[in-house]
Amino acid sequence: MDAPSVSHIRKVASRCSLNCTYCYVYNKADTTYEARPRIMDPKTARAALGRITAYAARHRVPEAIIALHGGEPLLVGKPWMARFLEDVRYATPDGLRLSLTVQTNGTLLAPERIELFDRHGVQIGVSLDGPAAWKVSSTSRSTACCTCWSSGPPWARGDRLFDPRPSVRSPWTGRLLPIRPFLQATFVWYGLLHFWSLALAAGAFPTARAEERRETARRGFLRTPLAELMTPCRPHLSDDVAETITTLQNRATATH
């Protein structure tokens, strides 16, 4: 069966150029980055690229998307990035459109990097978040928040979203989380549920493995109403985000 598309996220740098106080990875519960290389070995990057293009060719996929992520992906340095983009150019077989994106906090976006990305057709995504009360200059935000502006409609009323105190227990891991990591984790679990459902339908992975991963992602949605878990924080959350969480749970459980 032909796969409709392939998307791949590569965590090319395990460290970040910022030290956001609310970051779940660097200042909260997730310390797995400490055991990982700071920068992906170029040989690993090339091997992954080879597997992606081989998969795309085998399943006759017209487009593959590779997102360079982190940490902060620009910490790999310009020589690493330039070599990788050249590898992409020469490794892409005829008939495959390989789209590249880089997700950055923007602090290392120097003109020469932008020119490099423009030359290779790389799309740039800049992560913007943080409440209005935390608007700071670029020289001080490394110890405050990731950016100076919030992106899109606010998730919470006031700064309650960035309260570091654990207040919601995850139905997936059992951990007690602050509200923001809980909301983010819910979106990630839903994305994983969607991914493994598509992978199962496409036959892209062994059936037993895909079913196991899909049901792991679905598990938290089945255990308890998420709206009830968020009750202590509900007065501080926007109606949009609360309704979205409920909608995701309804969709996740409807197909079970």
Features:
four-stranded parallel sheet; 7 helices; two-stranded antiparallel sheet; 256 residues; 39% helix; alpha/beta; single chain; TIM Barrel
Please give a structural write-up.
This protein folds into two domains: 1-152, Alpha-Beta Barrel (TIM Barrel); 153-256, no CATH class. Helices cover 39% and strands 11% of the residues. It is built from seven helices and six strands. The strands form two sheets. Strands 1-2-3-4 form a four-stranded parallel beta sheet, with helices on one face. Strands 5-6 form a two-stranded antiparallel sheet. Helix 3 (111-119) links the parallel strand 3 (97-104) and strand 4. The relative contact order is 0.11. Residues 130-153 have low confidence and may be disordered.
